[in-house]
Fold each of these.
Amino acid sequence: MPVGTPADSSVRGDRIPAGLEVLVEVPATSANLGAGYDSFGMALDIRDAVRARITPAPIDPEACVTVSGEGADVLPRSTAHLIHRVAREVLAARGLELGDRLELEARNVIPQSRGMGSSASAVVAGIAIADAIGQAAGCEPETAAGRLAWATHFEGHPDNAAPALFGGVTISFTDIGGAAQSVSVPVADGVRAVLIVPETRLDTAIARSLLPETVPHADAAANSAIAGLFAYAISHDPGMLLEATVDRLHQNYRRPAMLESLERVDALRAAGLAAVVSGAGPTVAVLGTGDDLAERVAAVLRGDPARILATAIAPVGVLTTVVDES
Ligand SMILES: Nc1ncnc2c1ncn2[C@@H]1O[C@H](COP(=O)(O)OP(=O)(O)OP(=O)(O)O)[C@@H](O)[C@H]1O
Ligand SMILES: N[C@@H](CCO)C(=O)O
């Protein structure tokens, strides 16, 4: 877990300006992208927005978060809310205690528990809010590596967090020192994504519990070749994306938990479209080119009730605006 260093060791909560307002906008993400289990990810042009405010006086810790849109009926309104919890923990590591003065207003559009990185987006929002508050209190900005380390600490794996932080298509890995790192891969002109989002939800923890402890060596070897091919196809030759998105590590093991999603993947791939399970599912992502990609997907899935969302790959990750420095 990273521990940010205050620029001045006397930095404490009383240095946080009352009235400070920060707006963060975080993209949805699609992880794995076929062969890149727990590694590949891409940012999507769909964003949750969170406004954070430092109140002049302490507020009720049971009612310090408002939520509209996705999850409004289930997410906590208290300091137990994921974004609140992340922001407080990151600030505490910098010696900054908020003392019940952080108010959040979340406007959510990213579908939750569907494989579109909603939890990573919430974690990244908390990290970005903490960083902006920390800087207003005199701390150094968090480094890119520090942000990714924090996100990995909360998420357990960096594949969704990296594109939510940095945008585009990312390849995350653990470096030889044991730290999460990521690199950005250029995306060839015209590559876009179509998401097929069902009403059903699947908890990532449940999807992960279906994976075996070990896989056959032949599968690992084939998967590593395809993972390398993906980096080439997405950046240089999108015509190879169908070949470059074959997975042998996770999708089939998870089939029992999302039969319809895997049927969609099979049907789309049989029609020549590069379809994969998005993250831990049950959303399906299709990568390809052409203005008519969504129509081609819809033609294969005719009569399917799942929502079809056409989106660009977002070139930038989380956006932070200090609205009022007070
Ligand atoms: N905007 C949000 N604000 C607060 N908590 C959230 C938010 N979005 C997601 N969460 C929390 O994360 C949980 C969903 O996480 P989960 O990892 O199961 O799915 P996901 O992140 O949408 O999918 P995936 O990781 O496969 O892309 C929600 O049940 C909720 O607890
Ligand atoms: N790589 C992760 C993404 C979802 O968090 C998984 O497939 O479980």
Amino acid sequence: MDWRKERKRFACAWAGIVAAVREETHMRIHIALAVIALVVAAILHISKLEWLILLLTIGSVITLELVNTAIERAVDLVTTDFHPLAKAAKDIAAGAVLIAAVVAVVVGIIIFLPYLL
Ligand SMILES: Nc1ncnc2c1ncn2[C@@H]1O[C@H](COP(=O)(O)OP(=O)(O)OP(=O)(O)O)[C@@H](O)[C@H]1O
């Protein structure tokens, strides 16, 4: 394994994450909500299984937001003119984030509500 290449790959991936956080308001909102959920989870001492589900849920939302941002950039690279396929690509990618975010809210309610009642 070429460690210099691996380090460069990691640096590029990190640069992509930083760019998405800087440029995308929704990414910052997802991260802020994730931090709040993690703090609440720590305060409530949720179980190991609940931690796993919470982390997977947060990871899926942030991962899909990154993919959505990448698709937006790729589409904008191809065309900034109106095109039905550009619209479909962006709308479908946004739909993926929406589904993950709705599932995250439901997971949050299922995990946290019993501790709060
Ligand atoms: N080239 C295009 N052709 C057709 N429709 C487009 C095009 N670009 C964007 N759209 C439409 O506008 C919507 C918003 O696109 P935009 O690129 O502004 O992304 P966004 O979801 O607002 O993301 P953000 O504001 O976080 O960058 C898309 O979901 C799509 O419906």
